[in-house]
Amino acid sequence: xxxxxxxxxxxxxxxxxxxxxxxxxxxxxxxxxxxxxxxxxxxxxxxxxxxxxxxxxxxxxxxxxxxxxxxxxxxxxxxxxxxxxxxxxxxxxxxxxxxxxxxxxxxxxxxxxxxxxxxxxxxxxxxxxxxxxxxxxxxxxxxx
Length: 144
Known about the structure:
Blueprint: E1 4-6, H1 12-21, E2 32-39, E3 45-56, E4 59-67, H2 76-84, E5 93-97, H3 102-106, E6 110-112, H4 118-129, E7 135-139
Parallel strand pairs: 4-5
Antiparallel strand pairs: 1-2, 2-3, 3-4, 5-7, 6-7
């Protein structure tokens, strides 16, 4: 399966997917939205995973990684991360991870960090004030 990037005018399926499985998610036109599809039959496809890349100043926030419950534990999230590896920039791509997913993101060269730009830190602090338990991580390519 290949990650398909959606035009801002062609996101209805992604909106429905997020509304069903991550109802608090708010897609922005500024974000890049990528999805994985599966075919139910010859004419009907279904979104089974999605991810969003949100620009924050000159940085990128990986957000909204979501796999359909029926398709979890099949490596789709790993497949998405591998697809995105060429897009991630050293010390410029961040994620606000759930504590239970830190190990997953570490497998894809994200590290916990306190060394963050102000734009990212402000957004992270805003989420923390809302009571969200998150871990701030950045992409750090060990080869780079």
